[in-house]
Design goal:
- Its EC number is 2.1.1.80.
- One of its GO terms (molecular function) is protein-glutamate O-methyltransferase activity.
- It is an enzyme of class 2 (transferase).
- The protein has two domains: 79 residues, Orthogonal Bundle (Chemotaxis Receptor Methyltransferase Cher, domain 1), CATH 1.10.155; 192 residues, Rossmann fold (3-Layer(aba) Sandwich).
- It is globular, with a radius of gyration of 20 Å.
- The chain has ten helices and ten strands.
- 42% of the residues lie in helices and 19% in strands.
- The N terminus is likely disordered.
- With 291 residues, it is of the alpha/beta class.
- A seven-stranded mixed beta sheet has the order 6-2-1-7-8-10-9. Strands 3-5-4 form a three-stranded antiparallel beta sheet.
């Protein structure tokens, strides 16, 4: 699921188009909560109207009633586009660097040593947005594999609800100005500089693509993967969920993590009072309790 930074400043001003009636807004609020886990307050009425007017134009619809009927008829078919429309993808390479420092200095060396005899290492980027997070994880993982000469079966699963975000993640193509968090050394090693029509862009190295599997997934629906995972990154996602949704999600994460596995949350998120399956071991870093 993408980071849903729903703020009034995001609403485009002066946008003309159909008006969102109160009953239609209530339907959309209920639909978004049921299918995405995002609780929209009454103050988001104008924001939702402005965001979805663009979606209506893309679909050739003249009124919100027709859009609501589309959702009733084919909820899954439009769900990803709806989530994209009302959400803002806020992400960057190596955001919250202390998480990557912990991986490099402690976790990856330990895991690779423990799993060197026919082991497997799995990391899940849940809410991967446009791909910066899983590719940053792939960089530190690839470097750890090279450093140790390890042949451990290591993979990263990257999932999101937004089709637009996943499309960019699969392309692995990023404007140079979006790569401030990547060191010069890593830019040279893990990216191919674009030329011609791709001037001003960089593409992730094929080695990173080998490590990352990108798939659509709604965190509130069934999960096809069985795990177990050594670490799950779910950063800047659950802040937009209500308490019961967070509790259910954390317990599901616990069920897919190895004993002693790690869950990484965003800088504004906390598990305090929400789960007894984890213990806090660092700044927004939680470890699954061993029982």
């Amino acid at each position: 699921m993408t980071t849903a930074a729903l703020t009034e400043s995001n609403v485009a001003t002066g946008v003309s188009g159909p008006l969102l009636a109160d009953a239609e807004f209530k339907f959309l609020r209920d639909f978004v909560y049921q299918h995405c886990g995002i609780a929209l307050g009454e103050q988001k009425h104008q924001l939702v109207q402005g965001r979805l007017q663009r979606r209506l134009r893309a679909l050739g619809l003249k009124e919100f009633g027709s859009y609501c009927q589309l959702l009733r008829t084919d909820p899954e078919g439009e769900l990803g586009e709806l989530a994209s429309a009302i959400s803002t993808n806020v992400t960057s390479f190596f955001r919250e660097m202390h998480h990557y420092d912990l991986l490099v200095s402690e976790l990856l060396p330990r895991w690779l040593e423990e799993k060197k005899h026919n082991g497997r290492l799995r990391i899940w980027s849940a809410g991967c947005s446009t791909g910066e997070e899983p590719y940053a994880l792939a960089m530190v993982l690839a470097e750890a594999l090279e450093r140790t000469g390890s042949s451990v079966d290591a993979r990263i699963l990257a999932t999101d609800l937004s089709p637009q975000a996943l499309e960019q993640a699969r392309a692995g193509l990023y404007a140079l100005e979006r790569m401030d968090g990547v060191s010069d050394e890593r830019r040279r090693k893990w990216f191919l500089r674009g030329e011609g029509r791709y001037e001003g862009y960089a593409c992730v190295h094929p080695r990173l693509r080998e490590l990352v599997t990108i798939q659509p997934l709604n965190l509130l629906h069934d999960w096809p993967m069985r795990g177990p995972f050594d670490a799950i990154f779910c950063r800047n996602v659950v802040i937009y969920f209500d308490k019961p949704t967070k509790q259910r999600l954390f317990e599901r994460y616990a069920g897919l993590l190895e004993q002693g596995g790690y869950l990484f949350l965003g800088h504004s998120e906390s598990m305090y009072g929400l789960s007894d399956s984890f213990e806090l071991v660092g700044r927004t870093v939680y470890r699954k309790c061993t029982r």
